[in-house]
From TrEMBL:
Pfam family for this entry, one: Rrf2
NCBIfam families, A to Z: rrf2_super
Top-level division of the source organism's lineage: Bacteria
Protein name in UniProt: Rrf2 family transcriptional regulator
InterPro entries for this protein: Tscrpt_reg_Rrf2, WH-like_DNA-bd_sf, WH_DNA-bd_sf
Length: 136
């Protein structure tokens, strides 16, 4: 399981937006400069986040972006999976379609257990948690 650079930037964008005051929006240039990424890359990620309704966009001169949901309702896992799809620690687990195959192979069984622990941790970590941790 590898978190790609694109996922890393998506996490940074959502975290940035989670820190905005209620009713405040941020434009793509502001986000890209603050998070040290190209404007083109920021816009690409923002489009994907808007498409799945995690982020809302506003057009016009005073346009920009804000979270569509509460930071407490957006998990780290959901943002990563928007960019990368389902997470797998090992490609062999991606193709396993029955629990019996996992149970009969001790290596896959261990890897599957680790994978599920990671997914659970990512699911249980909200952007509110990350925002609060970064404020300390």
């Amino acid at each position: 399981m590898k978190i790609t650079q694109e996922s890393d930037y998506a996490i940074k964008i959502v975290l940035y937006l989670s820190k905005l005051d209620k009713g405040e929006i941020a434009n793509a240039r502001e986000i890209s400069e603050a998070e040290k990424m190209s404007m083109k890359f920021a816009l690409k990620i923002l489009r994907r986040l808007c498409k799945v309704k995690l982020v809302e966009s506003f057009r016009g001169i005073k346009g920009g972006y804000k979270l569509k949901k509460s930071a407490d309702d957006i998990s780290l896992r959901s943002v990563i999976e928007v960019i990368q799809g389902d997470l797998f620690i090992n490609t062999s687990l991606k193709n396993i379609n029955s629990a019996k195959k996992v149970e009969t192979d001790p290596v896959n069984s261990l890897l599957y257990s680790i994978q599920e622990d990671v997914k659970r941790k990512l699911s249980n970590t909200s952007f509110k948690d990350l925002r609060d941790a970064s404020a300390k």
